[in-house]
Amino acid sequence: MRFVIITGLSGAGKSQAIKAFEDLDYFCIDNLPPKLIPKFTDLCLKSQEKISKVAIVIDVRGGVFFDDLLKELENLRNGEYSYEILFLDASDEVLIKRFKETRRRHPLASSNLLSVSIQKERKKLEPIKLLADQMIDTSNLKPKDLKAKIVEIYKDKNKKSKLLINIVSFGFKYGIPLDADLVFDVRFLPNPFYIENLRSLTGKDEPVREYVLQSSETNIFLKKLIDMIDFLIPYYIKEGKSQLVIGIGCTGGKHRSVTIANYLYHHLKGKDHWVMMNHRDINKDSEALKK
């Protein structure tokens, strides 16, 4: 089990970090009291569901419980549990600016100035910082840059892109998918609905597929569509996007959109991308007839 403990200065980006670990399929817990670490570790190891990646945030928000962290880390080592520490840091100036922008209260604030609270926290975290396996200074990093660094360090090296591409075929008369990032209207393509022996079939059937794909406008459109999607995907990955929803729509979501969506799906699968398919409205017409 890969076990990562995330800690560091308040305002240095731990909330963004835990989101990045969630996108990497880590089991994540925020602000776990250190005394619960051994019990939590045992629970993960004994779980019937195989939990292979865990990330927890532990910091000074834990109050007096945080003081137990060094002792519990030593207990983990003595129990032959392996773990990694990721420490997030930032300059005082940046931390002060972030607290003022968010209007959040520093966990160690009392009557002290914010700068004094930050220095107090630095001193408290110094022993943990010395044990860190990875340190990231977030002073000049945007959230997407921090995510990119975490993904690079902690991603599963045996897996390729973690971008999930979800292709959805739909009918415009039933509405555009609310979560679509890209929407392509294919209602300009030849419509099998007006061919009597094709009307009852769908884009999954070979006669419909052949009818849609044989037209010159379809071939030109597919070439341009594939070129654009292949161009965009690396930039979405670089941006740190974890899911891309591509909507392909025709009038009823049964013939043209299904054909084009299937074509795009097989192209992306051939490129070894992580792709899912959803023909949202393919059975809507038949369901309406039954009613």
Automatic annotation (TrEMBL):
It holds the Pfam family RapZ-like_N. InterPro entries: P-loop_NTPase, RapZ-like, RapZ-like_N, RapZ_C. Keywords: ATP-binding, GTP-binding, Nucleotide-binding. GTP binds at D59, V60, R61, G62. ATP binds at G8, L9, S10, G11, A12, G13, K14, S15. Residues 164-282 form the RapZ C-terminal domain. GO terms for molecular function: ATP binding; GTP binding. Residues 1-155 form the RapZ-like N-terminal domain. The keyword Nucleotide-binding applies. This is UPF0042 nucleotide-binding protein.
